[in-house]
């Protein structure tokens, strides 16, 4: 069994969606959050950082074998979610993958490719997906040596502080198209994505 967990960050507030929840938008007939969790499950055990209950996002994960972690201080930003989820990573885990829940085009193959990059480039501490032209994005795989600095992050900048501090130990793995960076933050983004998506 793959011991590397996937931390799915899904406690954000969708502030730019005009009252809608981007993670509850349907993709392939199910909420984006559920779809992201099912994709993550294909590569390892999944820890999902969520807003406190009651919240529809908890219901969206009903029946899935994932660990749901309520982030009481989610309003602080992304790093509250990261800190909260890291507490639940198994102590024997040699690495952890961090994945944003709002990247609708990422596939099982993409996550697997970044996991494999750890084996083919073992002298690094961070392995991350990128666009086909090399722009860094998600998912991001962190060696366990970085769990401590990650657990001390605050604010809403994600793990960029740690990534910059270890920039010489980052391997960037190109994924097809814009999958690694394409997020949908506004109703307009969703409309454009749906219009151009292949049936």
UniProtKB/TrEMBL annotation:
Keywords (A to Z) from UniProt: Magnesium
Domain of life: Bacteria
Gene3D superfamilies reported for this sequence: Spore Coat Polysaccharide Biosynthesis Protein SpsA, Chain A
Cross-referenced InterPro entries: MobA-like_NTP_Trfase, Nucleotide-diphossugar_trans
Segments forming domain MobA-like NTP transferase: 6-168
Cited CDD domains: GT_2_like_f (cd04182)
Protein name: Nucleotidyltransferase family protein
